Automatic annotation (TrEMBL), chains A, B:
<feature type="binding site">
    <location>
        <position position="152"/>
    </location>
    <ligand>
        <name>Mg(2+)</name>
    </ligand>
</feature>
<feature type="binding site">
    <location>
        <position position="255"/>
    </location>
    <ligand>
        <name>Mg(2+)</name>
    </ligand>
</feature>
<comment type="similarity">
    <text>Belongs to the DNA repair enzymes AP/ExoA family.</text>
</comment>
<feature type="binding site">
    <location>
        <position position="154"/>
    </location>
    <ligand>
        <name>Mg(2+)</name>
    </ligand>
</feature>
<feature type="binding site">
    <location>
        <position position="254"/>
    </location>
    <ligand>
        <name>Mg(2+)</name>
    </ligand>
</feature>
<feature type="domain" description="Endonuclease/exonuclease/phosphatase">
    <location>
        <begin position="5"/>
        <end position="255"/>
    </location>
</feature>
<feature type="active site" description="Proton acceptor">
    <location>
        <position position="255"/>
    </location>
</feature>
<dbReference type="InterPro" id="IPR037493">
    <property type="entry name" value="ExoIII-like"/>
</dbReference>
<feature type="active site" description="Proton donor/acceptor">
    <location>
        <position position="152"/>
    </location>
</feature>
<feature type="binding site">
    <location>
        <position position="8"/>
    </location>
    <ligand>
        <name>Mg(2+)</name>
    </ligand>
</feature>
<feature type="site" description="Interaction with DNA substrate">
    <location>
        <position position="255"/>
    </location>
</feature>
<dbReference type="InterPro" id="IPR020847">
    <property type="entry name" value="AP_endonuclease_F1_BS"/>
</dbReference>
<dbReference type="GO" id="GO:0046872">
    <property type="term" value="F:metal ion binding"/>
</dbReference>
<feature type="binding site">
    <location>
        <position position="35"/>
    </location>
    <ligand>
        <name>Mg(2+)</name>
    </ligand>
</feature>
<dbReference type="GO" id="GO:0006281">
    <property type="term" value="P:DNA repair"/>
</dbReference>
<dbReference type="InterPro" id="IPR004808">
    <property type="entry name" value="AP_endonuc_1"/>
</dbReference>
<feature type="site" description="Important for catalytic activity">
    <location>
        <position position="225"/>
    </location>
</feature>
DNA sequence: GCCCTGGTCG
DNA sequence: CGACCAGGGC
């Protein structure tokens, strides 16, 4: 048994107590964080180590972005890709080195949000997002081991992954071009979307609600966070859950944690 | 019986729950706030009205300074002086219009801090502080009714009003020039310093501790907040207390409330 | 909306 | 140290 969580925490320093609470209540073996928004030197390593998460791979930067994978089972950092080649900290890859999960690779990624306008010409950030996905797609070809790819993908691929499919067709995160580009990444390695494997369409299944306005009343969510298993790993996934309650905590992240359990 | 509190709250929006807690626990009839740090439109009027403090005189500005006097006994705003003539919101004067305290005037003031260097030439803010005090001194001559003058004076007049008299002689808030200038204001109307009337020198008696460094461990406080009664009002003051516990609350103001009870 | 960076202020 | 502001990001 091995359980892995992913959570875009939107500042790990501000929400370290919420991380600790989630770890106490959900008890995953491994936690992948995105948007830690700090440098490695500022990462709350001790607070997490005190809870047993002594194995840590932190790829941070000042102020923005940043990812970290912490674990109570041994791991070692194996990669730290910069698919944009611009110095942003959006990926860290680890390998579990002992126990049932030995050899499992966990890729933790924060895909660019892509700006407001879904047009390469008008909005360079949208192009960067697509380029990022295409580079990940080429990288996918090279993988040869059981791998879990998790994080904030900033794309809600299915109609039922958003509260209003038609309205969001022109909104970055749900445009046909993004969905198609993400689909190529998925197909490049036969990735299995565990969120929809365990909670099949058309069931409502969101991981993010804007801070703005009436997200709670209207349930205007999107499924932007994902856990994808390589074809050789997917059969071992035994449960998968979205921990929606954290979105109702005080001063929450706008994203919620996802957790998968594996029988390994 | 009438009780009046004064508290430099250092952002009333951020600390409205602490204000409510203090009001519940101390139950003053009137509360004078300084450094509300908001415009009148942003003042948490409803939260205070809900607790019975429905009579309010708010003199705010954007971001800095600002004073407000709220009460559960009827009052009317009578003055709103700008002794510096620069648009800063540092004073509001009210008159109680009913009940035992009818006719009592309460002047709520936030005297300028005065900058870092205690020299008019090198630091214009120090001059502005002295000018502010001198204009208040001239204003004091004109008063003819029982009056309570309260607020953050930003001066600790006595040796025992600071944790280290000698060290602070050259620190703005305790320089001989400030103490002398404040003394002239006091003498201009025969104001009675209730803090020292009820807690005589040389007893330790602080109302402010810096946010910086080890204020709690070292008790490096100063008495910057004051309640002064006009000679005709002072005999009615029956008790006076410093509510030090608020400084140990979570995310506190750097100042504590002072409360005087009057037998009226 | 909320969190970052930096600035000013006390 | 911790308020505020403005500007940038998502």
């Amino acid at each position: 048994m091995l359980s892995v969580a992913t959570w875009n925490i939107n500042s790990v320093r501000l929400r370290i107590e919420q991380v600790q609470r989630m770890l106490r209540e959900q008890s995953p073996d491994v936690l992948c964080l995105q948007e830690i928004k700090c440098q490695e030197s500022q990462f709350p390593a001790q607070a997490l180590a005190d809870m047993g998460y002594i194995h840590q791979a932190v790829h941070g930067q000042k102020g923005y972005h940043g990812v970290a994978t912490v674990s109570r089972v041994p791991l070692r950092e194996i990669t730290r890709f910069d698919w944009q080649d611009n110095g942003e900290a959006r990926h860290v890859g680890v390998e579990l080195t002992e126990g049932e999960g030995k050899g499992l690779v966990i890729e933790n990624v924060y895909i660019p949000a892509g700006g407001d306008i879904p047009d390469r010409e008008l909005n360079p950030k949208f192009g960067q997002k697509l380029d990022f996905l295409e580079r990940m797609t080429r990288w996918s070809d090279t993988l040869g081991r059981p791998t879990l790819l998790v994080g904030d993908f900033n794309i809600a691929p299915l109609e039922c992954d958003v509260y209003d499919h038609k309205a969001l067709l022109k909104v970055v995160s749900h445009t046909p071009l993004e969905v198609e580009t993400l689909g190529k990444l998925r197909d490049a390695h036969g990735w299995v979307d565990l969120g929809r494997h365990f909670i099949p369409a058309p069931e409502r299944n969101y991981s993010w609600w804007s801070y703005r306005s009436y997200w709670r009343q209207k349930d205007h969510g999107r499924r932007l966070d994902h856990m994808w298993a390589s074809p050789d790993l997917a059969p071992q996934a035994s449960t998968h859950r979205f921990v929606e309650e954290t979105r109702r905590w005080e001063q929450p992240s706008d994203h919620i944690p996802l957790i998968t359990e594996f029988s390994l």
